[in-house]
Design a protein that fits this description.
two-stranded antiparallel ribbon, mainly alpha, 9% strand, 42% helix
Length: 164
């Protein structure tokens, strides 16, 4: 199970990184580890967003980058499924989304919409401290609706190519 979970996260990181999403670059995976890009410098790792104080301009820019990333992840058939300010690193004025073991493919998970809406809501809740107050449900719905035609369920053969 652990190997499957690690391979799932490694594959997800690869898809997202190749798609230009701000995630650590996956380098290699082993039986019980993932080697990925380090975010930080020689003296300290990048702090999580909750450990960072942003200027109003940084907050707006970071929120926009993260919402754009959530939408582009959905276009790549991935939902983080636990996205919050705890799973975003902030380094050199840029956010990096981390921690993908629970990521879901919305074509496979019937609960994808509420999971997606929760991710958007958590981001909106965090950024409300900076005066950014979008309507989370409306924002999530508009993103979801733009990609809903791409989210048709996979066939049994697409899920498992060995099924006849």
């Amino acid at each position: 199970r652990q190997t499957s979970w690690l391979q799932h996260e490694y594959t997800t990181l690869g898809i997202l990184h190749a798609g230009g999403i701000p995630v650590p670059q996956p380098i290699s995976s082993g039986e019980n580890t993932i080697l990925m890009e380090y975010i930080g410098d020689l003296h300290q790792p990048a702090p999580s967003l909750v450990e960072t104080t942003l200027s109003p301009a940084q907050a707006r820019r970071t929120f926009d980058i993260l919402i754009d990333s959530v939408e582009r992840m959905l276009a790549l058939a991935r939902i983080h499924a636990d996205l919050s300010a705890y799973n975003v690193l902030f380094w050199e004025d840029r956010p990096t989304i981390i921690d993908f073991p629970q990521a879901v493919d919305p074509r496979q998970n019937p609960d994808s919409w509420p999971i997606f809406a929760r991710d958007v809501e958590r981001l909106c809740q965090y950024f409300s401290r900076y005066g950014i107050r979008p309507q989370p449900l409306s924002l999530a719905r508009s993103i979801w609706d733009r990609h809903s035609s791409e989210l048709t369920p996979l066939t049994p053969q697409e899920l498992d190519p060995y099924v006849e």
